[in-house]
Amino acid sequence: MESTASQIEEIIYSKIRQAGEKGIKQADVSKILGISSAEAARNVTRLIRKGLVRKEATIVDGKKVVMLYIANNDNIDIIANLGNIIDIPCFSCKLINKCQNGSHVSPQSCNKMNRWLIEAL
Ligand code: SF4
């Protein structure tokens, strides 16, 4: 059975994670997985673009080696825009406990919800 690109990415990611702080040589990825170095490089690039992996060039025994590590995402700030969410009418609705799909009071029949949706679009 052939592996898909995402399966290969998952395997590479898990190998890098298993390597821990010492990382893994990019050149070893293709050997470990039995894939071409070009295919390994494409998958590693996708993992880097997703922010899951980082690579670092280093010198080992006088040779330049590209090492792969799990990206440290501890310092990434996540900014969420809650601008439209706080205006959702349900948050201030007195009927929220009676409102459900299929009932007399429901989001499908609610004028406040319809108006909010139209304004939000
Ligand atoms: S959908 Fe309408 S009736 Fe239901 S909780 Fe939201 S605002 Fe209230």
How would you sum up this structure, described in words?
By secondary structure, this protein is an alpha+beta fold. It folds into two domains: 5-70, Winged helix-like DNA-binding domain superfamily/Winged helix DNA-binding domain (Arc Repressor Mutant, subunit A); 85-120, no CATH class. Helix content is 38%, strand content 15%. A three-stranded antiparallel beta sheet has the order 1-3-2. α1 (5-19) crosses α3 (37-49). The radius of gyration is 25 Å and the shape is elongated. It starts with a helix and ends with a helix. The model has no long low-confidence stretch (mean pLDDT 86). The structure holds iron/sulfur cluster. Iron/sulfur cluster is lined by residues 89-90, 93, 95-96, 99, 105, 107, 110, 112-113.
The span between the termini is 45 Å
Shape summary: elongated
Q: How many strands in all?
A: 3
Helical content (DSSP H or I, runs of 4+): 25-40%
CATH architecture of the largest domain: Orthogonal Bundle
Beta-strand residue fraction: 5-15%
Going by CATH, what is the homologous superfamily of the largest domain? Winged helix-like DNA-binding domain superfamily/Winged helix DNA-binding domain
Radius of gyration: 25 Å
The largest sheet is: 3 strands, antiparallel
Small-molecule binders here are:
iron/sulfur cluster
The main sheet orders its strands as 1-3-2
What is the subunit organization of this protein? single chain
Decide which structural class fits the backbone.
Answer: alpha+beta
Average pLDDT number: 86
- CATH class of the largest domain, please? Mainly Alpha
